[in-house]
Each structure stands twice: as C-alpha cells, then as structure tokens.
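User: Structure with zinc ion, tokens only please.
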Amino acid sequence: MGFESFRKSRMNFNETVLKAQEKKGTGYGDGYDYWKLEVDKEKGTGSAVIRFLPPKDSELPYAKVYSHFFKGDDGRWCVIDRCPTTYGEQCSCCSANSTLWNSGQEDKARNRKRRTNYVFNIFVVKDPANPENEGKVFLYKTGPAIFNMITESMTPQFDGEEPKKPFDLFEGHNFNLRVRADASRGGLASYDKSFFDDRATDVAKSDAELEKIYNAMTNLDEYLKVGKLSNADIDKKVAAAYCNSAGVSVQTAFAKSEVDEMMKSEPRDSYKAMDKLPWDEEDSPAMPSESMNADEEDTLAYFKKLASE
Ligand SMILES: [Zn+2]
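Assistant:
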C-alpha cells in the first residue's frame, strides 16, 4: 500500500477492529452464534439442559463437518475448518497424512487427523453458568460422543426402553448435557453422564414462541456453504504446515518439493469412496477446543493464527 492510500484508509481501522471483535465473540470466528457449555474450572464439571431442534429447510437436523487442527512444523497452527472431504472432495491434508501414515509416521498422521464434528441448532432450556442464554437458539458444535448418544436414543438396545424423539418440537426429549474431566483419560472431557429426559415435552407453549424459535434457527445446508476453502488455499496451508519456511522439513521426512510432488501424484478422487481413514479417530471424545486442558490455549492460538493471516 502506498503512503497516500494508507493516509486515506486510516479512518477505517476502528471499523475493522470492531468487526473482527464481533466475529471473535462467536467462538469460531465464522460469524455464527455458537453456544458452548461452560466448565467450572475448579470442579472440572459443567451441565446444561438443551433441546436439539429439527431441520430448517435442510434434509438433516445436523451438519457433519470434517476439519484439521494441528501445529505445523514451523510451530504455527494449521486450521482447516472444512476438510474438503466434508463435501466429498479430495483433501491435500488427508493425502499428506496418508503418505505420513504409509511411511511409518503414524503418530504424526494421527496428530493431524481429520476430526469429525456435528453442528446442530439447539434451544437452551437451562444454562446455570450463563442463564442469559436460556430461551434462546444457538448453533452447537460437538463431536461423535454426543452424536452417538442421539442416535442411540432413537434406537434403544435394551428391553423396556422406548425410542426417543430428540428433534421433535412438540413431543421431544430434552438433553441433559453433562461434562466432566475424566481422570482415567488424562483429564479429557467425558460426556458419559449425559442423558435424555424420559418424559417428552413441547419446547414452547405458544405458537408465537415456537415461531420465534423457528425464525432464529440456521439453515444448515447454507451453513455448510460458508467457509468452504478452495483446493488452492488448502494446498497452501498444508504445504506451509508440513514444511518450514526454508522448504526443508525439520520433523517430517519430506522436503517442500516432495510434498508438492505428492500432491500432484495423488489422484484427486482417491478419498471419495473412503469414509473412514486409518488415522481417523471417530470415537475421539471432543474437538480440542472442548477438551478442558486445551481449551484456552487452543482458542487463543486459533485466534492468534487468524490474526496473523
Ligand atoms: Zn482432510
């Protein structure tokens, strides 16, 4: 930028900073309003009552999103919010992981694994840590643990259990979300004490309230379209993460030119047919921002990363 343009644009800085802060408030920096379960740092527990909401103009009541979130060889975070396999497309990061895995660097591939998340519209019934959220609609991003509880509630395995309707506005079952630090797993977040109400209830008493809830919901098909990166952008991020700036990798066995070659030689559609990759850990308890140990550090690093771009 030349000095004259710099002088002219100086008044825009306030606006830019305020906008950036507005976005930061959502937690993931993508402009959506997410709800997060607050964990009591001393007790290591958190609880709330939420209701999963039905789809709004989309086929499913959730969006399934794959992402990558790891520290690159240069020590900076590499964040790919939408791994292209989210859209059934080939992903450079997954491809590079495949090469790592096949060359015996399993730990590294696992660290850079594709993470699975589910995004729901929820209605907050009770939020003891943040009562101002009660009666409002948010997006809620969570991992396979909660998703599995939802599917299990609809297909009970034991005698005497009735299938539940987690997404029904009128005769649905509230979800009692409970998280605790699980000492047996190094303090990772565990949701195993969560449960659905036995009794079905309506989410609101009047049509006006129901309509308000409906209007506040997000169309999850539209949600998925936001933040989709081009393959070229992902290639750039991945190349930066797998090799340091000098083009020589310190921790991987690959130099930058080799990574470039790998990406060229990897057939673009090789992952379409593969839903589960060997380094995927579908049963991982939560994404890193939900694990209590890593929460603050990761969020901070994430925003630092965004700010440095
Ligand atoms: Zn990927």
